């Protein structure tokens, strides 16, 4: 029998496959099972039109047999089978061309990525086998045909005995080497796991002889191991079932099982979409972030199914970063696991689905915020930072879309509130949304600037997350109300008379303030009186674009040049210390220098900042005591 050569491009692809890395090898079974299922589909649908042919629906099955001694796995289906010509065209040319075109156009993609993402059908069998035999017979043929190949160097086709219609594929599993282990594919539990993982929802039973331990008949303690056929796939995907037929428990179990989270999901979104692209989506919002969520190892993505067959375990393109916490899957018959399909079209469908999914998640969260506040707060406590990052990312491209999902702690409500709730409560003369930053809400609550605003009846948002202020700056305004950091220079709540009086005060003391600024050696831009502090003597006020809080965050980024917020030291004009300073300016400039340093250091401490020289501060205070 003459050996035939594969077409040149097929040879390349085969080499690529045979040498692919280990972790992707396991998809071979998914590919072969999907082919078997497609072949059964074909025979079944044909029989619907030709009465008398084919089998009853229930008689269609896929069998898997393992023979450890012979090192073989056999996959048997009673599908349509192939004629000799079909064997030649289907298994003599790999993937017509699609994948190789794809490869040359996308050099950055590795071979493995191509295989991993699209699968390459039948030929993936060579990732684990050193010989593949296909015995097949069609309804129209009297006799069967056999295709045998040991890989890249060609294949042969001959006639063979075969009684039943369908296909039997026998893989001779490679010997394990130092680097690669293949023996595991001869273990039934491994095959069982692979079927559960990739082919659970194949619509025909997949049956394999499995070992089970059970009580010996008539005995109460003696066990025996029996080998009996077991169906490995559950056949009906949960997401294809009717929503109102699924219990909360079923969703939970499915989620726990598939996404390895012990908790119940906080929220389930189950949707069916039909239109330009049709798909089922089953999405879960976890209650808590997984342990690796904030590490670089975390990989976002949804599982991708094509008609019940998993084609990708984590499709990152389906989720924007700010919704990266969502787990779940998308199943679409419009996506094919067949790489011979147009890759571009594939891509287009995927983009469309991604866009819809993003919209869906947003609308679900918006609804949750409106109708189940407690649940939304839980969500926000786990994943709010991600939403804020989303507002900030890409120069605020999505800021507008996401702004209504934000919550911040409110000084007056003593809970998380949305921006729209804040704006609704704003005083009529108030033009800005007021906020203050700090480590904890308790610490912010004690800030002198906040204290006096609360006293005047203003609501202040407390920002405790590093990203908060950056997000607000990116947003710039909400409902035409801008944002004002109460520890920065841009709030204006005084009457004109009050402003004028303060201006006078500051002008009169200008020389003293210049002296104090000098004494602080350039640590502050300015020293001045303020009337925004209620009972407190001093505070630091940010002057430039970078607030004190932003300085703290930016300076934690390793490798970046350190930034410094520009600040002014503000002294409460109504506080007795103001008079004391004025007196010292006349009588004891050395002491005024010390006082300036102490006031500056205490203002830093109040603002939650480090002080540069704690020993100096301690000495200065002790000097006052003795
Ligand atoms: P595809 O992505 O088209 O399934 P494959 O390389 O996996 O690519 O298979 C090539 C073709 O071989 C299939 O389209 C099908 O026509 C045929 N084929 C593969 N496996 C079987 C099978 N078990 N029964 C009948 N035909 C099959």
Distance linking N and C termini = 110 Å
Q: Helix/strand/pairing class, anyone? A: alpha+beta
Compute the number of strand runs.
22
Spell out which ligands are present.
adenosine-5'-diphosphate
User: Within the largest sheet, what's the order of strands?
Assistant: 5-4-3-6-2-1-7-8
Shape: elongated
Short description:
The chain is of the alpha+beta class and 626 residues long. 38% of the residues lie in helices and 21% in strands.
Features:
single chain, 626 residues, alpha+beta, eight-stranded mixed β-sheet, six-stranded mixed β-sheet, 38% helix, 21% strand, elongated, binds adenosine-5'-diphosphate
Detailed description of the structure:
The structure is a single chain. This protein has 626 residues and is of the alpha+beta class. 38% of the residues lie in helices and 21% in strands. The chain is built from 20 helices and 22 strands. An eight-stranded mixed beta sheet has the order 5-4-3-6-2-1-7-8, with helices on one face. Strands 15-14-17-16-19-18 form a six-stranded mixed beta sheet, with helices on both faces. A five-stranded mixed beta sheet has the order 9-10-13-11-12, with helices on both faces. A hairpin with a 2-residue loop joins strand 11 and strand 12 (309-315). Helix 8 packs across helix 9 (373-396), helix 16 crosses helix 19 (589-606) and helix 18 (576-587) runs antiparallel to helix 19 (589-606). The longest helix is centred in the middle third of the chain and has 29 residues, at 343-371. It is elongated and about 120 Å long. Mean pLDDT is 87; it is low at 95-109, 112-119 and 338-344. Adenosine-5'-diphosphate binds at residues 31, 35-36, 39, 77, 79-82, 90-91, 121-123, 167, 338.
């Amino acid at each position: 029998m003459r050996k035939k050569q594969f077409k040149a491009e097929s040879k390349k692809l085969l080499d690529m496959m045979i040498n692919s890395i280990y972790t992707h090898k396991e998809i071979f079974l998914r590919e072969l099972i999907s082919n078997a299922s497609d072949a059964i589909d074909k025979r079944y649908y044909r029989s619907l039109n030709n009465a008398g042919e084919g089998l009853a629906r229930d008689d269609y099955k896929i069998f898997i047999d393992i023979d450890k001694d012979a090192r073989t796995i056999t996959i048997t289906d009673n599908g349509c089978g192939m004629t000799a010509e079909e064997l030649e065209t289907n298994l003599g040319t790999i993937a017509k061309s699609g994948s190789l075109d794809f490869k040359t156009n996308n050099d950055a993609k590795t071979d493995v990525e191509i295989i991993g993402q699209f699968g390459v059908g039948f030929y993936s069998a060579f990732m684990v086998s050193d010989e593949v035999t296909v015995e097949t017979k069609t309804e129209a043929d009297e006799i069967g045909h056999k295709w045998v190949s040991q890989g890249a160097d060609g294949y042969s086709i001959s006639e063979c005995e075969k009684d039943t219609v369908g296909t039997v594929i026998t893989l001779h599993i490679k010997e394990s080497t130092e680097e690669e282990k293949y023996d595991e594919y001869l273990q039934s539990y491994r095959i069982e796991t692979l079927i559960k993982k990739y082919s659970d929802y194949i619509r025909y039973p997949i049956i394999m002889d499995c070992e089970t331990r059970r009580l010996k008949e008539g005995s109460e303690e003696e066990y025996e191991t029996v080998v009996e056929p077991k169906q490995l796939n559950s056949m009906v995907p949960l997401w294809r079932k009717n929503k109102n037929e699924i219990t909360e428990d079923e969703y939970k179990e499915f989620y726990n099982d598939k996404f390895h989270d012990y908790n119940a999901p906080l929220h389930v979104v189950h949707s069916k979409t039909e239109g330009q692209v049709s798909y089922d989506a089953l999405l879960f919002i976890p209650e808590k972030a997984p342990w690796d969520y904030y590490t670089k190892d975390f990989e976002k993505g949804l599982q991708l199914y094509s008609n019940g067959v998993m084609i990708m375990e984590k499709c990152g393109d389906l989720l924007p970063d700010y919704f990266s916490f969502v787990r779940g899957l998308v199943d679409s018959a419009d996506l094919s696991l067949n790489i011979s399909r147009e890759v571009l079209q594939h891509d287009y469908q995927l983009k469309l689905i991604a866009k819809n999914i993003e919209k869906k998640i947003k609308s679900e969260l918006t609804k949750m915020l409106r109708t189940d506040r407690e649940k939304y707060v839980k969500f926000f406590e786990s994943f709010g930072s991600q939403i804020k990052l989303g507002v900030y990312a890409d120069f605020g491209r999505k800021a507008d879309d996401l702004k209504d999902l934000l919550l911040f702690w409110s000084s007056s409500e003593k809970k998380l509130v949305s921006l729209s709730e804040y704006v609704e409560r704003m005083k009529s003369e108030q033009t800005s949304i007021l906020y203050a930053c700090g480590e904890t809400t308790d610490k912010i609550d004690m800030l002198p600037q906040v204290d006096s605003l609360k006293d005047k009846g203003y609501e202040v948002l407390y920002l405790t997350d590093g990203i908060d202020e950056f997000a607000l700056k990116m947003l710039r305004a909400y409902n035409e109300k801008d944002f004002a950091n109460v520890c920065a220079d841009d709030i204006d709540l005084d009457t004109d008379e009050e402003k004028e009086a303060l201006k006078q005060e500051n002008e009169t003391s200008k020389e003293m303030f210049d002296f104090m600024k000098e004494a602080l050696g350039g640590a502050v831009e300015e020293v001045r009186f303020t009337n925004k502090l209620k009972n407190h003597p001093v505070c630091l006020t940010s002057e430039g674009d970078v607030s004190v809080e932003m300085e703290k965050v930016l300076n934690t980024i390793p490798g970046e040049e350190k930034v410094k917020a520009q600040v002014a030291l503000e002294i409460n004009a109504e506080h007795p210390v103001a008079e004391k300073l004025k007196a010292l300016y006349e009588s004891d400039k050395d002491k005024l220098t010390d006082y300036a340093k102490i006031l500056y250091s205490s203002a830093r401490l109040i603002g939650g900042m480090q002080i540069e020289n704690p020993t100096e501060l301690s000495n200065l205070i002790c000097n006052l005591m003795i």
